[in-house]
Amino acid sequence: MKLTHAVALVVLAIGLTGCTKPKQVQPDTTTEAPAATGVQTSGVGTDTGPTTATTGTMSAAQQQALAALQSRNVVFFEFDSSEIRSDYVAVVGAHAAYLTKYPTARVRLEGHTDERGSREYNIGLGERRAQTVRKALLLQGVGEGQMTTVSYGEEKPAVEGSDEAAYAQNRRVELVQGP
Amino acid sequence: MTPCRAHARPKRINPVRSRAQLVLSACVLLLAGAGLFFAEVAHAQLRLDITQGVRDAVPIAVVPFGGQPEGGPGDVAAVIAGDLQLSGRFKALERRDLVARPTRAAEVRFEDWRLLKSDFLVVGRVEPASSGIAVQFELFNVQTGQLLLSQRLLTTERGLRATAHRIADLIFERLTGIPGAFSTRIAYVSVDGRPPSQRYRLIVADADGYGPRTITESSLPLMSPAWSPDGQSLAYVSFEGKASAIYVQRLATGDRRRVSARSGINGAPAWSPDGGKLALTLSRDGNLDLYVLDLASQGLTRLTTDSAIDTEPEWSRDGSSIYFTSDRAGNAQVYRVGATAGQEPQRLTFTNGYNARPRVSPDGASLALVTLDRGGYRIATFDLKTRNLRVLTDGQQDEAPSFAPNGATVIYATRAGSRGTLAMVSADGRFQQRLSSDTGDVREPVWSPFPAPQR
After folding, report:
1. Which residues of chain A have a CB within 8 Å of the CB of B312?
2. Beta strands B256-260 and B266-271, pairing class
3. Which residues have a Cβ under 8 Å from the Cβ of B195 and sit 6 or more positions away?
4. Residues 6 or more apart whose Cβ sits within 8 Å of residue A11
5. Is residue A128 within a helix (H) or strand (E), and if so which, with residue range?
6. What's the rounded Cα separation, in Å, for the pair B24 and B438?
7. For B277, which of A76, A173, B144, B347 is 20 to 30 Å away at the CA?
8. Are B367 and B381 in contact (CB under 8 A)?
9. Is A115 an 8 Å CB contact of chain B?
10. Closest partner residue to A38 among B5, B219, B252, by Cβ?
11. B433 pLDDT band (50/70/90 cuts)?
12. A110 and A127 Cβ atoms separated by less than 8 Å
């Protein structure tokens, strides 16, 4: 009974994601002449750098508030921890204040880890960090629909290096404000 | 820099460089029209540095084959010597130390090779055949003068490297009892540039690093390549859509299909032994759990429900269960769960505070994994019957182990200074070598299965 319920939920969830899926990214698969071993290259050439907030429709006040957030949009973490350190509670609070004041604003929470440990496990740790920040924002009244999370694990370090100074800068959640 | 493309035609390579420096791959780009001149572009060139095990390596002399110039890309003896050296179990004699150049049994004077303290000797020649060319070789025991192996293989000029790998496979099997895995391929991820603007490439090369070909490239991370059991396709994770998604790409055509782009994380694809399903990791409740995706029907079965991180699935050889990493007990450990819904996971590893990313050996009897051993992340094997954990490497950040299809060697990623490189260790831990890369950061090596039997 429980199981069928779970299966039904899964099916429903697939259906939902299927319906609400945003535009599909069409990879630029350039097909080239077959090489000696039959391998061909296919380039994913589209530049997918970070989005920049469209400020066109914003009030001057909102633009000013957004600009003020740009300098404090990263929350750092201790090793193997996903707890928000006391010195970053204010950063999260500032984003919460902005998001609750401007309900059409959106934020993308990008979780990251340092390079130690296995890569897919670190994707999990980065997600856990992003979820911690998400929950903190939820508690402060930010709408669920205003937030998305993504975890890059150790794949997108902020800085290079294999020492504690580099690790400390890489264990982070970036709060990327959108329009 | 121009990436090294599939059809950059290797015009000239350096199959063997001096001493312990064996250039394993070179990528050549034709620059000017009409081939008036050309330049080598060393993109992610892998070079073999022997770090351990030389003393135990068995000396073997591979004499340049008759009927072909020395030093070309199809230099059969150089490819064979490179393969045997790459296994860590053999040490090929330097060319300049070869006292003679016999190409057939009648020309061999065994006392010459005994003086050089070579245990084995390979001679051979390339000859025109009625269709294409033929490669004839002989393998001798130098001490006894006994002929151990003699074969004639038909090929073409373009197929010379493949034929040389085949010969290395046969020699390796004759001398060790283990089928050689030199005719296989590796896939890996290469990253160029400095944060935050980096370029990610998924590359497929021969098992000796030769002929790297970029399969996919992106300005956002590519990770977790996994070979299909037939060796025809790779599954991998790409963040190109700003969220992770799993793709399956056929190597022969370059066609690819996005098989999972569900909300949240789509990660860690692993093929079932029959090739019909992918085990993967999704995060629909905000944490990672394991699922099985049927590739034909797109049907999804959930395997785990714990609030911890459950990831890095790997199928057992019989397809009945799945090994995975979970931190449900507080830190990362390896578990096993049945491959159908509603099974209770069992914890397998208890030694050390961190064990992750299990990969099953070809015989199904052990796992290669990453363990935190005395402060360093290292590669270990875990015997599924005795539960004994054996640390094979001594790095600080060794990760992503992958068995060669013959089970004799494990390829993995390590760090040399600030750069990621690839390394190999024999499954018994005796031989260890590093494949350094001159440029970029190289990671997540995965060894292909054996090629399908030839028709």
Report:
1. 118, 120-121
2. unpaired
3. A156, A157, A158, A159, A160
4. none
5. helix A119-139
6. 12
7. B347
8. yes
9. yes
10. B252
11. confident
12. no
Amino acid (1-letter code) at residue B4: C
- The residue among B399, B419, B442, B443 with the most chain A CBs within 10 A of its CB, best to mutate, is B399
Q: What is the DSSP string of B310-367?
A: EEEEEE-TTSSEEEEEE-TTSS-EEEEEESSTTPPPEE---SSS-EEEEEE-TTSSEE
Q: Find the distance separating the first CA and the last CA of chain A, reported in whole Å.
A: 44
Name the nearest CA neighbour of B363 among B424, B300, B407: B407
Who wins on pLDDT, B53 or B81? B81
Angle at B187 between CA B181 and CA B193, to 5 degrees: 140
Q: HSE (CB half, 13 Å, CA atoms) of B289?
A: 17
In whole angstroms, give the CA distance from residue B309 to residue B304. Answer: 10
Helix or strand or coil: residue B443? strand
Contact assignment for A124 to B255 by CB distance below 8 Å:
no
> For residue B339, what are its two tokens?
């491959």
Q: Is the Cβ–Cβ distance between A42 and B254 less than 8 Å?
A: yes
**A14 chain-B contacts, CB cut-off 8 A:** 262, 298, 300
Structure tokens of B77? 């003896």
Pick from B422, B364, B431: nearest CA to B187 = B422
Omega prior to A27 cis, within 30 of 0: no
Question: Each residue of B167-206: pLDDT tens digit?
Answer: 999 999 999 999 999 999 999 999 998 887 899 999 999 9
* Contact check, Cβ <8 Å, A42/B215: yes
What angle in degrees, to the nearest 10, is found between the helix axes of A119-139 and A89-101? Answer: 60
Q: What is residue B170's three-state secondary structure?
A: helix
Q: Tell me which residue of B75, B85, B301 sits closest to B182, measured CA to CA.
A: B85
User: Under DSSP, is residue A20 helix (H, G, I), strand (E, B) or coil?
Assistant: helix
What size, in residues, is chain A?
179
Do B183 and B79 contact (CB within 8 A), yes or no?
Answer: no
Q: Model confidence over A89-102: pLDDT tens digits?
A: 999 999 999 999 99
Please report residues of B whose CB lies closer than 8 A to that of A49: 197, 219
CB contact under 8 A, A162 and B397: yes
> Which amino acid is residue A84, in one-letter code?
I
Task: Enter the ipTM.
Answer: 0.85
Q: For the segment B373-398, what is each residue's pLDDT rounded down to a tens digit?
A: 999 999 999 999 999 999 999 999 99
C-alpha pair distances (Å), B238 with each of A74, B241, B245, B261: 24, 8, 6, 10
Residue entry with tokens 């190999």: B424
Q: Give the neighbor-by-neighbor strand order of the sheet with B300-302.
A: B266-271, B277-282, B289-294, B300-302
- Closest CB to B418: pick one of A29, A119, A160: A160
- Gap between the Cα atoms of A27 and B216, Å rounded: 10
B152: enclosing H helix or E strand:
strand B147-155
* Total residue length of chain B: 455
What the block records as the tokens of A173 is 């959640």
Which residue of B309, B326, B335, B419 to mutate against A (max A Cβ within 10 Å)?
B309
